[in-house]
Amino acid sequence: xxxxxxxxxxxxxxxxxxxxxxxxxxxxxxxxxxxxxxxxxxxxxxxxxxxxxxxxxxxxxxxxxxxxxxxxxxxxxxxxxxxxxxxxxxxxxxxxxxxxxxxxxxxxxxxx
Length: 112
Prior knowledge:
87% of the residues lie in helices and 0% in strands. By secondary structure, it is an all-alpha fold.
């Protein structure tokens, strides 16, 4: 019985360690994004006006991006998303195909 309890404790510790590693990696990404966003004076000024909120710039940009996605989905619907997927991506890939030396991708993307 003690061996089973010890195994479950080890499993629980491994799960906690894994969760801590994921949290540390996420925090590192947030800090990198915060450092990049510090280059914009407007965001720095906004962050100074809201004391006590760590990484306000990252939360603000993330929230705005989320709201933009919701806006596009609810007000422009799936038609907008399908149009962008069916037009913007092939257009981008066509320009990329023109820039490469390979003729196979030209044939694929320029006949699309």
